[in-house]
Amino acid sequence: MFTVDVHVFGEVYPASQSFTELAHSSFLTWPRIIKLVGVCAFVYVFMLAIYRLYLCPLASFPGPVLAKLTHWYEFYYNVVRGGKYYEKIRELHAKYGPVVRVTPEEIHIMEPSAYKEVFVFGVVRKTNAYPRFSNDMTAISTPHDVHRRLRVPIDKLFARASILRIESRVADRVARLCDRLSCYQGTGQVVNLTNALSSLTTDVISSVIFEEPSDYLGDPDFNGEWYETLKWGTRSVFIFKHLPWIVSVLGRPLLRSLVTRITRWTVWDEKARREVLLIRKRPSDAEQTREKTTILDHLAHSDLVESEFGNGGFPRLAQLIQQAGAHNVSHALGTIITYLLLEPEKIDPLRRELEDIWSKHDDRLSVPSWLELEKAPYLSAVVAEGLRMAIGGMNRTPRVFPNDDVKICGWVIPRGTPVSMTTHWMHMDPTVFPNPECFEPNRWLTASPDELKVMQTYYVPFAKGSRACVGQK
């Protein structure tokens, strides 16, 4: 029988020595444990680097070495440089071409004609969300099939006919905001319009979800302190995205703790739970005929939401709809108002157009309807240009195709690969939108039919495909 002595860190240990004896010997000292962990870590990182650079399915795609190796490359630009990775990505495309590997597992496209290949409907191919961008704290669902089951009933509630039925709720809250702002006339006080518009959109979306909607417009300061808190949370998104284990280990418990201490979130959650219980006590057919029917009316009698989200499904769904409906709309409104005030020559034609419409309602017992306003050409152009300029987020919008390889710009992208594009660069293409950084409503009125067709192809404020914005109508 042969025995072999063990050589570790320059010392010899008999092969006959058991593991227990080794553990109690001087072998497992802390310096040696640290060295062993260091060696293992080095080998792991080295092998991972070799795999990502030379062996993985994306190894042949162009891109900077650091971006291929690690997510810390993106972390530097988004966290240290303050959200600047979208600008760096444009530089990378100028160097490497329309298809660039921007993280170890993500491909970014900067070729507008490819948009229709990436953002597709389910009949073309199934589309998952990318968990790194859309974890279960910020998105309805990641898998395609689950997402479709939840989206189908919600799509019906945000269809054009459904929105027309709640027009009076929107008009009432706009009138409330106008009354609040009129109180500031002649006082010399400064109004934070960002917070005022955020309060408006929060109250509007709340009226769509709840029988007892919020009254943010009633706050004397338009909820300034609350919105500062939300901005602080938004600035943490990049950190949570780059360090997902923080969300899993620390983030959820911390956020739950914060929710129990922040009154507004607690009220919102409790309101959702209370209203679901109230709705379930009523006959289901009564929800379809009530004047103030809400989203929860249509979902509360179904097990769908709780089967997908668990016991906290309804509060979470209400929060997700509120977040998307309040911030993006208020940001677009604020952008439009800011540009119009900075350039009075562009507000004059809008004022004349609206005065002409309002002149048909001189009795003051009625106001123009949405159907009337949407026919106003200059108003429509102002809204379209505002949505072009007011990108909801500068981040990328990755899609994952679990069952299909996709050929884009001559490259075959393997199934399961996150593929992304950036709306900002679609809207800022100077070949389609001359002087793209200028607010020019007339571009939508003076373009030729062919030019307008191209502009509408590049115009994607709500995204497209099966995961497009539910509230775009």
Give an account of the 3D structure:
- This protein is mainly α and 473 residues long.
- The protein folds into 3 domains: 1-54, no CATH class; 56-127 and 407-421, no CATH class; 144-406 and 436-458, Orthogonal Bundle (Cytochrome p450), CATH 1.10.630.
- The protein has helices at 19-24, 30-55, 65-69, 72-80, 85-96, 115-118, 144-157, 160-165, 167-182, 193-209, 224-235, 237-242, 244-261, 263-281, 295-299, 304-309, 313-342, 344-358, 370-373, 377-389, 423-427, 443-446, 449-458, and strands at residues 6-8, 11-13, 99-101, 107-109, 128-129, 399-400, 406-408, 411-413, 418-420.
- The longest helix has 30 residues, at 313-342.
List the topology elements.
Elements: E1 6-8, E2 11-13, H1 19-24, H2 30-55, H3 65-69, H4 72-80, H5 85-96, E3 99-101, E4 107-109, H6 115-118, E5 128-129, H7 144-157, H8 160-165, H9 167-182, H10 193-209, H11 224-235, H12 237-242, H13 244-261, H14 263-281, H15 295-299, H16 304-309, H17 313-342, H18 344-358, H19 370-373, H20 377-389, E6 399-400, E7 406-408, E8 411-413, E9 418-420, H21 423-427, H22 443-446, H23 449-458
Parallel strand pairs: 4-9
Antiparallel strand pairs: 1-2, 3-4, 5-6, 6-9, 7-8
Helix pairs in contact: 9-10, 10-17, 14-17, 17-20
